[in-house]
Write the structure tokens for this entry.
Amino acid sequence: MSELDRLYSELTLPTSSKLVLLVLDGLGDLAMKSEGFLTPLEAAHTPHLDELTQESSQGRIYPVAPGITPGSGPGHLALFGYDPLEYRVGRGVIEALGLGLDLQSGDLAARANFCTLDPTGIVTDRRAGRIETAECQRLCRLLTEGIGTVDDVEIIVQAGEGHRFVTIFRGAGLEGPLNDADPHREGLAIPEAKPINPGSEKANHAAAIVAKFYERALSLIEREAPANGLLLRGITTQPALPLFPDRYALRAACLAIYPMYKGLAQLVGMTKIEGLRSVTDQFERYRRLRDEFDFFFIHHKSTDKHGEDGDFQQKKAAIEEVDEALPLLLEDRPEVLAITGDHSTPCALRGHSWHPQPLLLHSPCSGSDKLDRFNETSANLGSLGVFEAKYLLRLMQANARMFDKYGA
Amino acid sequence: MSELDRLYSELTLPTSSKLVLLVLDGLGDLAMKSEGFLTPLEAAHTPHLDELTQESSQGRIYPVAPGITPGSGPGHLALFGYDPLEYRVGRGVIEALGLGLDLQSGDLAARANFCTLDPTGIVTDRRAGRIETAECQRLCRLLTEGIGTVDDVEIIVQAGEGHRFVTIFRGAGLEGPLNDADPHREGLAIPEAKPINPGSEKANHAAAIVAKFYERALSLIEREAPANGLLLRGITTQPALPLFPDRYALRAACLAIYPMYKGLAQLVGMTKIEGLRSVTDQFERYRRLRDEFDFFFIHHKSTDKHGEDGDFQQKKAAIEEVDEALPLLLEDRPEVLAITGDHSTPCALRGHSWHPQPLLLHSPCSGSDKLDRFNETSANLGSLGVFEAKYLLRLMQANARMFDKYGA
């Protein structure tokens, strides 16, 4: 814990306020000439956001540090107030939690997906043509039943969405992190998963187990098509994170739909709320759960997905979908509402980026930046300036009047 | 190396992009009532910059830390991505390198210039009426031949431009840094060069050698006019810096005209390109060298010089000179172009200052801040916010897509 975190803790007061962090995944974008110098957020019709903006402050936040493009893990850890350089989480761990797998201490977890290999072992499609979930489930059963254990290590293979799955290695004396068994682009062979710290005996043992697993798994699916190979990433053991309710004195609920975000929220001690399918669901559930929790993390995925597809119109529509549902949330208005992304996913880049995401912060004491709209260009002019995402949660707490005065 | 630098290194990918850092020395200025509340950059006619601005981002960078006015050394080190608080370089070392002197390990180097003393030893003109280079050369020969060695320490005196020269003390057991033998303003006597860390035996030895050198040098020129005295500054031994090509995976060329900037670039491992006399030369040479290097540092001095003279019109003209030549650079447009200063040199202050300098960053993924012009006021509205100069190079790398994603 940093010195500053210790100070925040010392100053923390209880609150009866409700705090909502509404994350539009990959919200930030770039104004490009090809789109008339508008971002999807600027082009979107957002009457409810516009109205909210009248009594809000704005700013921009960068996820990690200048120029650093985060994955969803560091992006969300930062939004949850954890320094993403201090606290690192492997994607395998997050994904395993998100699939509802009950990780045990010492488990080595890896995010995995099926891929296509040519006869020489070169990866020709990293996503095996994005096979259906049912096919993925069939292949995962094949691996589970066909392998069982490697030496004394139990192998758990759990299908996710589409071509994605999770592998857990459960046994004594394993330790991550290992390098990805993933070339990260097509045209290369699958590299071996080697210990990142080669001095660790447990990590070397883990690498040996993973290598044996690979041998047996590949022979089990070698005649399948198109999914005749597999990639493992983020091969790590579960880290211990300070828990959200202790750290912030807030009972926290996760209203996410996608597994990874649920997993990440659970890792910091939020309560996962199940059975949500749309932003309307999420806002309604918030209203029903207001008495049980103080903090609500609401995650909207499709902004990011359309950004990754480079689909400007769909990203704009995904924003408008949230705007349309917004009155539901505002009917039982949380005292503190932050709306932002976990990173930018500019359509022009078709992927995550380092560009600071826009932030809107609304509370009875946010004041007004007197801006007409909430978007990247307005956010550049806001009173919050450009700052590191890890401070947002502290700002939300301050807006909930959760901090006593520092010094006399 | 900081934890964050290690992360940047880990994430670094190779690039085929060309990156240009165009430094208009001392570019930043202040909007004063006396000049109709315009800065030289705001008053300048800059049609090419204006056009570039349409597809660029802007921000402001402070060279070191709030309120810190840097010399050219820290100002440039920060632009080169080196924390100017972590990496310190004496001006003597830079100047010596810039004059083409081949510094040896353990050499103590000092930046020097002739000055005018009154009969009581008070400095009446810190630049000795800005004597001609030929006169400086004559006096330097006088010192070299007249002194030779002090105890066992070889004395090398090398003339620079105008009243400026460099002194190198070459011998065993010397160590810097020493305080400047320069009162930094007129009306005072020359102070003694004392060790900054008085506990160092080598530094005490160095101080004793410098004191003996002073005695002999002053007696050699006491009958000269107006240059009858000398000042030593930045008396240091050469530090080891991580080299630019290793640190950033970029082959770097220095297209500077003035010795000090060449020296500084050479110190971090850039290749000095010789024979440049104008900004047109510099841009043309960039075009010729595109295949040999990835990164080009182009330095334009006169903005700073006119700022130091308080000459608003000439500083404005110096900016317009760059703008006029800009199409040459843009014809073979680098993928990433950053235009900024190493610090502000406001005409009203007639010297370097701490005010953040404006920054323009242009790349295929800079997006647009939808600003009409590039200047201090526009830069205040930009998406890059206000940040420390040491991050600019990392942002340039990000814009060249040189960083892999951090975490999953």
About this structure: The two ends of chain A are 24 Å apart (CA to CA). The longest strand of chain A covers residues 108-117. Chain A touches chain B at residues 29-33, 37, 39, 60, 64-74, 84-85, 88-91, 94, 111, 184, 233-234, 346, 348-349, 351-356, 376-377, 380-381, 385-386 (CB under 8 Å).
